[in-house]
Amino acid sequence: MNMTNENDGIRYPSIDQLSKKTDSKYKLVIGAAKRAKEINAGDEVLVKNPKSKKAIGEALEEILEDDVIIK
Question: Which of 11, 13, 34, 50 has its Cα between 20 and 30 A from that of 5?
Answer without folding.
Answer: 34
